[in-house]
Amino acid sequence: MKRIAILASGNGSNAQQIVSYLRQTGEAEVALIITNRPQAGVIERAKKLNIPCHYFTNEQLRDGAEPIALMKAQQVDLIVLAGYLCLITPIYIKEYPERIINIHPALLPDFGGKGMYGDHVHRAVLAAGKAQSGITIHLVDEDYDHGRHLLQATCPVFPDDTPETLASRIHELEHRFFPTTIAQYLRFL
Ligand code: GAR
User: Fold this and answer.
1) Nearest Cα residue to 132 out of 153, 109, 101
2) Rounded to two decimals, what is the model's pTM?
3) Among 24, 68, 97, 183, which residue's CB has the most CB atoms within a 10 Å radius?
4) Which of 54, 104, 122, 146 is catalytic?
5) Region 165-184 average pLDDT
6) CATH domain 2-186 topology
7) Ligand 1 site: residues with CB under 6 angstroms?
């Protein structure tokens, strides 16, 4: 069975959906979760789900040696970034070419790039007066928010939306499409 490592910095709601979905279908398994934030909500979720969760500092993560050694030892086939806010350095792409998937909470190439994560993205979408937003699930390459798109899905933006209401609509899309897109991609590996 294919094995996944999830890298997450935040609440971990996507990580939880991915674990639950793959447990239901039995198509693949989440072998471990890695985080760069000792207080991240994903840690508690991992505990409840009984998935090993490892904390590394940003420096260790950027360097890559220790986390990659751990993932190799765990025979990880695919890395999934689920709200991961640390830079993926070239060593990861060298070790896992075409095997790193990211989710972005907007329709790339718009509203991507450095500093564009979480609520910053939703605020920028609202400030630009967009009538539509969405999600982009894509492969990770050397350039930020740039790799091949696997899926985009859209949702409306309403005139009275706040970053919070838009975020929750985007999260629904993410929870619906991220696990299935990962499973579909794994069938080609
Ligand atoms: C998600 O909305 C994801 O798209 C976003 O962080 C959130 C994590 O939510 N990722 C980025 O902004 C990456 N640039 P979660 O911790 O509840 O899964």
Assistant:
1) 153
2) 0.97
3) 68
4) 104
5) 98
6) Rossmann fold (3.40.50)
7) 8, 10-14, 82-83, 103-105, 117-118, 121, 170-171, 174
